[in-house]
Structures are given as C-alpha cells and as structure tokens.
Specification:
This is Apple domain-containing protein. With 105 residues, this protein is α+β, with helices and mostly antiparallel strands. It has helices at residues 16-25, 95-101; strands at residues 2-3, 7-13, 31-38, 41-47, 59-60, 66-69.
Length: 105
C-alpha cells in the first residue's frame, strides 16, 4: 500500500528507519511510503497527509511499497482557532497540554 497525491519529498534511503528519520525532520510530514529495494536503496516518499485525516481512497495498492503513518496524539485533542498540532517536535503531547502550559497552539 502507498498514499498517492500527497508526496512532498522523495529520496533514496538505505532502510525504512532512515525514511522515518527524514519524516521526523520534515515539519509537514505525517506519513511515509517506502518502496522496494533497488540497487541496495529504497525509495522514501514523505507525505503531508494520513489515511486518518484524508479519505482512504488515497491509499492504493502499489506492489512492494509499505505505508506508515506517524503516531500522533493531536487527534485526541485538536487545536482551536485553526491551530496546527505537530507531533514529535515538543515535549508537550497535544493542544490541551500546550494551552495548559500557556503556549499558543
């Protein structure tokens, strides 16, 4: 499976872990597609959407590809006023904790 039409960056990586690190370093990345091994490397695609926040029709059967979404506690406490919660970039877990700490979410 792979997500289509939401790729924001592509690269060749040595393994799945490297693709996950690339996603972590890209603020807009919330899921990845990892392609089959070719010449010792795998294709890594960073996506700006997940199957949870977009229609599942964006997931397509793509032989040799694997789809991963990041774990995100933002869904259980969405941000108010069109704020964006980014998982993994703060010690605070979701918008409720951000508001309690006095930060703007």
């Amino acid at each position: 499976m792979a997500m289509k039409d939401r790729v924001i960056r592509s690269a060749e990586v040595p393994n799945v872990g490297s693709c996950k690190v690339m996603c972590y370093m890209e603020p807009d990345c919330v899921s990845i597609n990892v392609g089959p091994v070719e010449g010792g490397n795998q294709k890594c695609e960073l996506n700006n959407a997940t199957k949870e926040n977009h229609a599942t029709f964006l997931l397509v059967n793509k032989p040799g590809c694997i789809y991963f979404a990041i774990e995100n506690s933002c869904g259980s406490s969405p941000c108010l006023n069109n704020g964006t919660c980014q998982a993994g970039f703060t010690s605070l877990k979701n918008c409720a904790e951000i508001y309690k700490a006095g930060e703007i979410g």
